[in-house]
Amino acid sequence: QVQLVETGGGLVQAGGSLRLSCAASGRTFSSYAMGWFRQVPGKEREFVAAIDGSGTRTYLATSLLGRFTISRDNTKNTMTLEMNNLKPEDTAVYYCAARQQDQRSRVPIGRRDYDDWGQGTQVTVSS
User: Fold this and answer.
1) What 3 state SS string does 83-105 have?
2) For 4-32, what is each residue's pLDDT tens digit?
3) pLDDT band, very low/low/confident/very high, at 114 (cuts 50, 70, 90)
4) What is the signed CA dihedral for 15, 10, 94, 19, rounded to 10 degrees?
5) Number of H helices and number of E strands within the chain?
6) What pLDDT score does 62 carry?
7) What is the distance, to the nearest Å, from the Cα of residue 1 to the centroid of all Cα atoms in its chain?
8) Edge to edge, what strands does the sheet with 4-7 contain?
9) Is residue 80 classed as helix, strand or coil in its secondary structure?
10) Shortest CA distance to 30 belongs to which of 74, 87, 90?
């Protein structure tokens, strides 16, 4: 099990940028595939982005291509989500998630694939 803490959320105007970070506990961070999800009240938690343990394979929700970027630094046990050209519809609570798995496994993109979750950080984009 890994403990996850998200930071970096806040209020930003449409067109602006934010960087979310997810800090993980433990010594085997590179053995975890990591993901970002977001949720608005009344809706299911939806996939945003995912990255494999080594950081070489990344996946992004199609609708976010060109605006969001996921990365990780295994030396610092952190994962980052860069969000640019933000839109009001990006407003949500953003969660990071982790799944310990073999590096050869597919990168999980379903919320049920992940075992550990952070507490979430609120992102609000004003129009």
Assistant:
1) ECCCCHHHCEEEEEEEEECCCCC
2) 999 999 999 999 999 999 999 988 999 99
3) very high
4) 60
5) 0, 11
6) 96
7) 18
8) 4-7, 18-24, 78-83, 68-73
9) strand
10) 74
Both structure tokens of 54:
């080594």
Distance CA 58, CA 69 (A): 9
Summarised one tens digit per residue, pLDDT across range 59-110 is 999 999 999 999 999 999 999 999 999 999 999 999 999 999 888 889 999 9
3-class SS at 1?
Answer: coil
Q: 112: Cβ–Cβ under 8 A, 6 or more apart, which residues?
A: none
Q: Checking DSSP bridges between strand 4-7 and strand 58-60, what pairing results, if any?
A: unpaired
Token output for 121: 């950080």
CA–CA distance, 9 with 25 (Å, rounded to integer): 20
Give Cα 15 to chain centroid, integer Å: 20
Tokens of 105: 């496994």
59's enclosing H/E stretch is strand 58-60
Token pair of 119 as six digits:
């507490």
User: CA 74, CA 39: separation in Å to the nearest integer?
Assistant: 26
